[in-house]
């Protein structure tokens, strides 16, 4: 029995990463589950990091105001991280490392906004949920509760979420999740490129031409200034990796989908690490910084890579409104 009165499967919260699915129906049930989770953490001298959309953050802040539990809670500025799910894992890693090093038990509550996502963003967010199990497989012990609103989310989103979480909170009880699948992530097909699409093969010595092509496409859709400069850095990183690790050549395709400029790179290389670009590089790390930088500079990054088909990377940068 946990301190909040709910049951816990024997040994489930002892060591390692506890990744728990919490399907709830409406704000009242969300608040009840979240506050129970926070109070239970507080009773164990634990700290809680909360990453939720602004409406839910407002509800929790109002409920926490004036309570002793408020001191044990920190809110992550999810909006400041942007819409790219590739930035979320390092944010959690940084906070967990800081507080576990100081001897504090840690927990988290993470609820992403789904209903306003593009298909590409939703796909990457599902992949992020799956990657959490891999990213924290050898981390210090901590517990992440992932609420999903059954009243507003599509059944497909809830089904996919259930497959990514080994544990579930249901009816006040914590336990194994029968829907969880411990298997490789099944990527959906990349969406079709929008017409008109411009294509440019490149190889060693062509980086200037790649940057010029992207700059021309960006100018045509009104993308300029700092955002264009950041995109050109990201473009240079990906094209350089193609030349160095992807058989010495690649193909760039560019288009606009009306909301973003998309730059797609394809080469014959293979990226074996599913977490490539999603963990902060260490000070003494050799290589591996390029994709990390790309995730920090772009609004969304899609990576598909197999030994048979090679690697396709799509960089999305939102257009000015």
List keywords for this structure.
321 residues; alpha/beta; Rossmann fold; Heat Shock Protein 90; 2 domains; eight-stranded mixed sheet; five-stranded antiparallel sheet; disordered N terminus
Describe this structure in a few short sentences.
With about 325 residues, the protein is α/β, with parallel strands linked by helices.
What does this 3D model show about the protein?
With 321 residues, the protein is of the alpha/beta class. It has two domains: 7-176, Rossmann fold (3-Layer(aba) Sandwich); 198-318, Heat Shock Protein 90. The protein is built from nine helices and 13 strands. The chain has helices at residues 26-43, 54-64, 78-81, 88-101, 119-135, 155-164, 207-220, 225-245, 290-297, and strands at 7-8, 17-24, 47-51, 73-75, 106-110, 142-149, 167-170, 173-176, 198-203, 249-256, 260-267, 300-306, 310-318. The strands form two sheets. The chain has an eight-stranded mixed beta sheet with strand order 1-8-7-2-6-5-3-4, sandwiched between helices. Helix 5 runs parallel beside helix 6 (155-164) and helix 7 (207-220) runs antiparallel to helix 8. The radius of gyration is 21 Å and the shape is elongated. It starts with 6 loop residues before the first strand and ends with a strand. 36% of the residues are buried.
């Amino acid at each position: 029995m946990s301190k909040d009165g709910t049951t816990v499967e024997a040994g489930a919260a002892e060591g390692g990463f506890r990744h728990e699915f919490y399907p709830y129906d409406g704000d009242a049930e969300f608040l009840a589950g979240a506050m129970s989770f926070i109070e239970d953490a507080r009773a164990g001298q634990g700290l809680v990091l909360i990453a939720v959309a602004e409406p839910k953050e407002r509800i929790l802040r109002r409920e926490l105001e004036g309570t002793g539990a408020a001191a044990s809670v920190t809110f992550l500025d999810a909006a400041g991280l942007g819409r790219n799910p590739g930035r979320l894992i390092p944010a959690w890693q940084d906070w967990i490392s800081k507080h576990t090093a100081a001897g504090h038990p840690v927990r988290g509550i993470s609820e992403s906004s789904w209903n306003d996502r593009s298909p590409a963003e939703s796909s990457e967010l599902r992949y992020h949920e799956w990657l959490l199990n891999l990213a924290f497989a050898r981390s210090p012990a901590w517990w992440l509760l992932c609420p999903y609103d059954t009243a507003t989310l599509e059944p497909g989103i809830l089904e996919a979420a259930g497959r990514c979480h080994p544990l579930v909170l249901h009816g006040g009880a914590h336990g194994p999740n029968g829907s969880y699948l411990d298997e490789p992530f099944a990527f959906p097909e990349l969406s079709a490129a929008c017409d008109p699409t411009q294509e440019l093969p490149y190889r060693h010595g062509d980086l200037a031409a790649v940057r010029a092509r992207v700059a021309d496409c960006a100018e045509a859709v009104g993308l300029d200034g700092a955002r264009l400069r950041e995109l050109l850095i990201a473009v240079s990183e990906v094209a350089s990796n193609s030349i160095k690790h992807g058989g010495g050549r690649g193909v760039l395709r560019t288009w606009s989908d009306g909301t973003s400029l998309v730059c797609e790179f394809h080469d014959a290389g293979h990226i074996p690490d599913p977490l490539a670009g999603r963990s902060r590089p260490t000070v003494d790390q050799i290589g591996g910084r390029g994709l990390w930088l790309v995730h920090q500079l772009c609004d969304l990054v899609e990576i598909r890579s197999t030994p048979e088909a090679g690697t396709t990377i799509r960089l999305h940068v939102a257009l000015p409104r």
